[in-house]
Specification:
Helices cover about 70% and strands about 0% of the residues. With about 220 residues, it is an all-alpha fold. It has 2 domains: about 5-115 and about 185-220; about 125-185, no CATH class. Helix 1 runs antiparallel to helix 7, helix 2 (about 35-45) crosses helix 6 (about 130-145) and helix 4 runs antiparallel to helix 7 (about 180-220). The longest helix is centred in the last third of the chain and has 41 residues, at about 180-220. It starts with 5 loop residues before the first helix and ends with a helix.
Length: about 220
């Protein structure tokens, strides 16, 4: 009977350790996208569609960490049960990631339209809650923009301090900022979506290698 290849065994262990590290990185980035103060302001205004995608990536990162642990233990202990659990779990994650990546790619061209539709529902801004108004003012001040879609008129006749500027420049007409904040939201969510798509498809290549390693080791252990 053929023995288990030491090279394959330890290659599988090293791969799964790196896979576990990848899970930690995905989890860390996803949590940052979820809880960073800048992101939170935009999520509060735009809605929960992107927030759901980030929550999914948090779950994926957590599961990958668990699968990486199973793979490491399965390789070192030569456990067919753990290797099979690793293979099945990794295959399911791969299918979910490919689906998420495809949906993200399909959703990307619609981001600007969906964001503008959402922003339209909170105009005039001065009729919204104080917390929401303050969040918009912070975004206006940080990004030197005024209003959401049409400019100062989005505030319903009120001119907040965050819209005011004095020097005539490309962004200022001498009294208020010219640029609306819709482009700020569009750029932010496009960048966030690109990160999610990149993680989904980039990790898919790594996972295919993992599937090959785990099945080869599983078969070798079974043939001992």
């Amino acid at each position: 009977m053929a023995g288990v290849s030491k090279c394959l065994k330890y290659s599988m262990f090293i791969f799964n350790f790196l896979f576990w590290v990848c899970g930690c990185v995905i989890l860390g980035i996803s949590i940052w996208l979820r809880v960073s103060s800048d992101a939170q302001k935009k999520y509060d205004i735009q809605g929960s569609s992107m927030l759901t995608a980030v929550d999914v990536m948090i779950a994926v990162g957590s599961i990958i960490m668990v699968l990486g642990f199973f793979g490491c233990c399965g390789a070192i202990k030569e456990s067919r049960c753990l290797l099979l659990l690793f293979f099945i779990g990794l295959l399911l994650i791969l299918l979910l990631q490919i689906t998420a990546g495809i949906l993200g790619a399909v959703y990307k061209p619609q981001i600007e339209k969906n964001i503008n539709e959402t922003l339209q529902t909170i105009i005039p801004i001065n009729q919204q809650s104080k917390d929401l108004q303050q969040a918009i003012e912070v975004i206006q001040e940080e990004n030197k923009c005024c209003g959401l879609l049409k400019g100062l008129s989005d505030w319903g006749g009120v001119t907040p301090e965050s819209c005011r500027c004095t020097k005539v420049t490309e962004t200022c007409n001498g009294s208020t900022y010219k640029q609306t904040c819709s482009s700020v939201f569009v750029d932010f969510f496009k960048k966030s979506l690109l990160i999610i798509i990149g993680i989904a498809f980039g990790l898919a290549v790594v996972e295919l290698i993992g599937l090959g390693f785990s099945m080869a080791l599983y078969c070798q252990i079974g043939s001992k």
